[in-house]
């Protein structure tokens, strides 16, 4: 009988735990299956084992068969394994207090300076060789880097400029190596980069940031303030030794006399420009012309002038930097901007002046002609201008309230419907991160590439819009962006340089 | 007491034998109805009183007609609509819902006690007559036991109370419940995809396995390098990436003019199930090691918010755990309108339903009409409604402003 009873117990345990309702049923008799509920009622699996109704032996048998059932309820808070030793809360607290404390960052740690690049890789303008020549078998050649990628630099980079397929980055150090260049070098816009395979030849494409040997008089004292890149030439501004120019000089954009039949590739020639009245405070490169702004507020230009972009009153080539006149004579200019064939200048009082190409309605508000070769004042009523940028077909300015105004032709940033306008249109500040939670967000800087725009707000966020040529917007998509879109960068963006199909940002890490 | 009482389980036999036309299955007949019939029979037979076990707590009937009867009775209470309660921490939200239901039922059952129906009965009695004891009929007034609450059980046994967006056990805050017809509004509120606002408290220096301070310790780190502006920067990045994700999940073609207009007004929001998205985040208090954030989010879980706190700690090159998650707004319902535990009674709930009726109706109408109008394009114009509601209630800021020229 006992054997039969235990057989019933094991049978029950294998099938399902007994389910009791009301607790009024009693175990009756030996071998009687009365306390086993029919399967149909067991299926609901409700109300766990209410062992009150079981008789003594069945109860012990139940517990004996299922030790785990008992242990798990006791050791619920202790740990994962059912056999883990239960620890009291005091033991846990003591263990926590005794745990080691890790320090990842010191109390007075400095934020690190970083450089992020993205865009078209094949010319080597991004400066990461593994994009073109993979150094591991699992890496593949990359045509486009669609999102920001960190570029490792030896020094803290203070200035960067993107040309047409090449990049210059410079640091304010007093070391001998102050400027690095990468990308296209067919016109020696990166200076002479000696090839390691053949000592007489130079590289046509520089795949990683390579130092540019500048003929400085005092290389260990001079600091590089700024770099600028055009289509095939580049300018470097120093604090004491004037401006250095290198690259293509077919139109005199390097500020030296045009030599017929000069071969620009593998050239060692770096020209120094010092004949300015006053120190040069800013340099900008257009496509085939150069502008120099001095501390006095005057602008000098040289290079191609067929669109009037030199602003000297004629449409010829200028090979010597010459001062501009027109509406900016006597005006103290604080900023000049150009990248294509039109130019903008901002005075200290917030006035805007423009000259150059006007085929895309950049200057249509003041003239019907498509080329303006003398600087003209642009009487826009948009407040005091703080920053301006010229693209290939569109222009953008920022006023002192932090609002962005765009005009010209192309994707201007107000949706696909606005493709051209002669008068500035404001882009709503909500697109630049203004919200209820951050009401004092303002745009602080505006930059232009050839057909894209980049804006920086005061919280260090970067917004881009325009034509997404070969992924140059860095938003991860290949489609054009018709209104400002945030670029996700792991850091606070300090400056951005836009090129034709790539961009470079100078970033400070968060911590 | 029960002199001639028969055991309950034999009542079946009685009804099937004596009542005509009960050849149909017994399950079609509810226990209550069988009780009723039994008492009728008993009175017809001899007027004995049937007492029965007193059933105090509401019993869940299994039979469909009983459910219908309970629903019918519940409908008569007039409790229909949405209201918000304040869920305390440490209690499961299902428990809260059950407690509210039980409290309401208790109050409803204790409310009205209509007078027990009386009936006139002619009962046979013996009377001293001429030839000894004679049988005559005496008029008496007896209560109809079938209608007695002790026989029928409590009037209200079940209330349909549905829970809105749940809160897990450790968190607290506004918890929306719907009663009666309000349960349909709960579905509408879910489909409106409104945002919810939380205040989250965190503690630097510790990392645990479940991201809260009651979990198992994983690592302890220093946090003396953390300053307020570093935290602000991290929060700005979180907001920025989530804003991008918001636009990406909204299923709008970004090349269209309407995408630009919606982005300007900040009205783009996904109208379908998406991973958790944070629409706004800011720091309310910063006193190392403690800090408090306000987070407005969509499709979130409270454990996701704890994970966000943990990740903020990692971004700051330290560690953080979440000590408190408190919901301060769920769609239209804010902390002001949430009822505290001491206020969970019938009158307060009725008032709460009445107060929230209009704003819920207006808000849901607007969001659903815009949803219908937009068709395939998933957009939401509910921000306008929300901001209006917030301005009237004076609560925290809405998600994005409409500063458009």
Automatic annotation (TrEMBL), chain A:
Assigned keywords, A-Z: Membrane, Mitochondrion, Mitochondrion inner membrane, Repeat, Transit peptide
UniProt domain RCC1-like: residue ranges: 112-392
GO molecular-function term, one example from the UniProt record: guanyl-nucleotide exchange factor activity
Record Pfam families: RCC1, WD40_RLD
SUPFAM superfamilies: RCC1/BLIP-II
The RCC repeat ranges on this chain: 113-173, 177-240, 241-296, 297-349, 350-401, 460-509
Domain of life (superkingdom): Eukaryota
GO CC, alphabetical: mitochondrial inner membrane; mitochondrial matrix
Biological process according to GO: mitochondrial fusion; mitochondrial large ribosomal subunit assembly; positive regulation of mitochondrial translation
Subcellular location field: Mitochondrion inner membrane
InterPro entries: Mitochondrial_GEF_domain, RCC1-like_dom, RCC1/BLIP-II, Reg_chr_condens
General function of this protein: Guanine nucleotide exchange factor (GEF) for mitochondrial dynamin-related GTPase OPA1. Activates OPA1, by exchanging bound GDP for free GTP, and drives OPA1 and MFN1-dependent mitochondrial fusion. Plays an essential role in mitochondrial ribosome biogenesis. As a component of a functional protein-RNA module, consisting of RCC1L, NGRN, RPUSD3, RPUSD4, TRUB2, FASTKD2 and 16S mitochondrial ribosomal RNA (16S mt-rRNA), controls 16S mt-rRNA abundance and is required for intra-mitochondrial translation of core subunits of the oxidative phosphorylation system.
Quaternary structure annotation from Swiss-Prot or TrEMBL: Forms a regulatory protein-RNA complex, consisting of RCC1L, NGRN, RPUSD3, RPUSD4, TRUB2, FASTKD2 and 16S mt-rRNA. Interacts with 16S mt-rRNA; this interaction is direct. Interacts with OPA1; this interaction is direct.
Protein name: RCC1-like G exchanging factor-like protein
Lineage: Eukaryota, Metazoa, Chordata, Craniata, Vertebrata
UniProtKB/TrEMBL annotation, chain B:
SUPFAM superfamilies xref list: Pseudouridine synthase
Annotated region described as Disordered, given as residue ranges: 369-405
Biased composition (Basic and acidic residues): 377-391
GO CC aspect terms: mitochondrial matrix; ribonucleoprotein granule
Species this chain originates from: Terrapene triunguis (Three-toed box turtle)
Name of the coding gene: TRUB2
One GO MF term attached to the UniProt entry: RNA binding
A Gene Ontology BP annotation from the UniProt entry: positive regulation of mitochondrial translation
Protein name as it appears in the record: TruB pseudouridine synthase family member 2
Domain Pseudouridine synthase II N-terminal: 159-301
Superkingdom of source: Eukaryota
InterPro entries in the cross-refs: PsdUridine_synth_cat_dom_sf, PsdUridine_synth_N, Trub2
Family: Belongs to the pseudouridine synthase TruB family.
């Amino acid at each position: 009988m006992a054997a039969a009873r235990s057989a019933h117990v094991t049978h029950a345990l294998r099938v399902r735990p007994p389910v009791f309702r009301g607790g009024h049923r009693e175990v009756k008799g030996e071998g009687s299956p009365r306390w086993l509920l029919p399967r149909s009622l067991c299926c609901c699996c409700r109300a766990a084992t209410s062992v009150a109704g079981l008789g003594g032996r069945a109860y012990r048998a139940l517990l004996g068969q299922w030790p785990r059932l008992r242990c798990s309820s006791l050791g619920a808070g202790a740990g994962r394994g059912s056999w883990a030793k239960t620890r009291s809360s005091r033991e846990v607290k003591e263990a926590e207090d005794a745990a080691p404390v890790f320090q990842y960052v010191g109390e007075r740690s400095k934020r690190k300076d970083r450089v992020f690049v993205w865009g078209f890789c094949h010319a080597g303008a991004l400066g990461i060789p593994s994009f073109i020549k993979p150094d591991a078998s699992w890496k593949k050649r990359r045509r486009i880097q669609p999102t920001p990628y960190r570029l490792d630099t030896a020094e803290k980079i203070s200035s960067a400029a993107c040309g047409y397929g090449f990049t210059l980055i410079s640091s304010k150090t007093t070391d001998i190596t102050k400027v690095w260049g990468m990308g296209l070098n067919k016109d020696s816009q990166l200076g002479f980069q000696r090839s390691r395979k053949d000592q007489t030849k130079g590289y046509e494409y520089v795949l990683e940031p390579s130092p540019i040997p500048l003929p400085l008089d005092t290389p260990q004292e001079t600091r590089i303030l700024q770099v600028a890149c055009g289509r095939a030439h580049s300018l470097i501004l120093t604090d004491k030794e004037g401006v250095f120019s290198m690259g293509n000089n077919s139109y005199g954009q390097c500020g030296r006399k045009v030599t017929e039949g000069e071969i620009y590739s593998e050239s060692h020639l770096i020209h120094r420009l010092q004949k300015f009245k006053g120190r040069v405070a800013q340099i900008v490169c257009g496509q085939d012309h150069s502008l120099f702004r001095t501390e006095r507020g005057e602008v000098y230009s040289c290079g191609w002038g067929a669109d009037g972009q030199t602003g000297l009153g004629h449409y010829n080539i200028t090979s010597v930097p010459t001062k501009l006149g027109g509406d900016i004579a006597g005006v103290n200019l604080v900023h000049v901007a150009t990248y294509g064939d039109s130019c903008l200048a901002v005075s200290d009082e917030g006035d805007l002046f423009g000259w150059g190409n006007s085929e895309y309605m950049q200057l249509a508000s003041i003239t019907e002609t498509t080329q303006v070769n003398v600087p003209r004042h642009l009487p826009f009523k948009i407040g005091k201008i703080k920053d301006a940028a010229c693209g290939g077909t569109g222009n953008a300015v920022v006023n002192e309230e932090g609002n962005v105004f765009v005009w010209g032709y192309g994707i201007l940033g107000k949706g696909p419907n606005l493709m051209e306008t002669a008068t500035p249109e404001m882009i709503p500040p909500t697109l630049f991160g203004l919200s209820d939670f951050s009401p004092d967000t303002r745009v602080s800087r505006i930059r232009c590439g050839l057909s894209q725009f980049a804006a920086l707000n005061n919280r260090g966020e970067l917004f881009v819009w325009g034509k997404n040529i070969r992924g140059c917007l860095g938003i991860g998509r290949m489609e054009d962006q018709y209104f400002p879109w945030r670029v996700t960068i792991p850091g606070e963006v300090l400056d951005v340089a836009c090129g034709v199909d790539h961009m470079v940002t100078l970033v400070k890490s968060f911590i | 007491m029960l002199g001639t009482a028969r055991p309950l389980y034999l009542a079946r036999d009685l009804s099937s034998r004596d009542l005509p036309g009960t050849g149909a299955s017994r399950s079609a007949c509810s226990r209550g109805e069988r009780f009723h019939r039994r008492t009728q029979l008993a009175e017809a037979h001899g007027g004995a009183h049937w007492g029965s076990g007193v059933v105090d707590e509401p019993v869940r009937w299994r039979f469909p007609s009983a459910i219908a009867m309970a629903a019918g009775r519940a409908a008569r209470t007039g409790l229909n609509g949405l209201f918000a309660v304040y869920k305390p921490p440490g209690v499961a939200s299902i428990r809260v819902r059950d407690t509210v239901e039980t409290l309401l039922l208790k109050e409803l059952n204790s409310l009205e006690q209509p007078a027990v129906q009386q009936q006139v009965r002619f009962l046979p009695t013996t009377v001293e007559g001429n030839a000894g004891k004679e049988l005559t009929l005496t008029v008496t007034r007896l209560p109809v036991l079938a209608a007695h609450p002790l026989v029928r059980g409590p009037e209200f046994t079940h209330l349909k109370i549905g829970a809105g967006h749940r809160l897990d056990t450790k968190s607290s805050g506004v918890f929306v419940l719907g009663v009666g017809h309000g349960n349909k509004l709960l579905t509408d509120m879910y489909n409106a995809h409104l945002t919810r606002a939380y205040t989250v408290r965190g503690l630097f220096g510790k990392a645990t396995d479940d991201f809260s301070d009651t979990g198992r310790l994983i690592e302890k780190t220093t946090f003396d390098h953390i300053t307020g502006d570093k935290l602000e920067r991290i929060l700005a990045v979180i907001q920025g990436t989530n804003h991008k994700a918001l636009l990406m999940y909204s299923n709008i073609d970004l090349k269209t003019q309407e995408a630009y207009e919606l982005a300007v007004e900040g009205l783009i929001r996904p109208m379908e199930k998406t991973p958790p998205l944070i629409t706004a985040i800011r720091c309310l208090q910063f006193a190392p090691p403690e800090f408090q954030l306000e987070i407005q989010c969509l499709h979130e879980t409270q454990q996701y918010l704890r994970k966000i706190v943990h990740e903020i700690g990692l971004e700051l090159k330290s560690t953080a755990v979440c000590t408190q998650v408190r919901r301060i707004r769920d769609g239209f319902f804010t902390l002001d309108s949430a009822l505290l535990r001491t206020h969970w009674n019938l009158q307060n709930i009725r008032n709460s339903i009445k107060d929230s009726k209009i704003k819920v109706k207006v808000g849901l109408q607007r969001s659903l009409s815009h949803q219908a109008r937009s068709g395939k394009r998933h957009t939401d114009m509910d921000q306008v409604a929300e901001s209006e509601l917030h301005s009237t209630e004076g609560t925290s800021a809405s998600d994005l402003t409409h500063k458009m020229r």
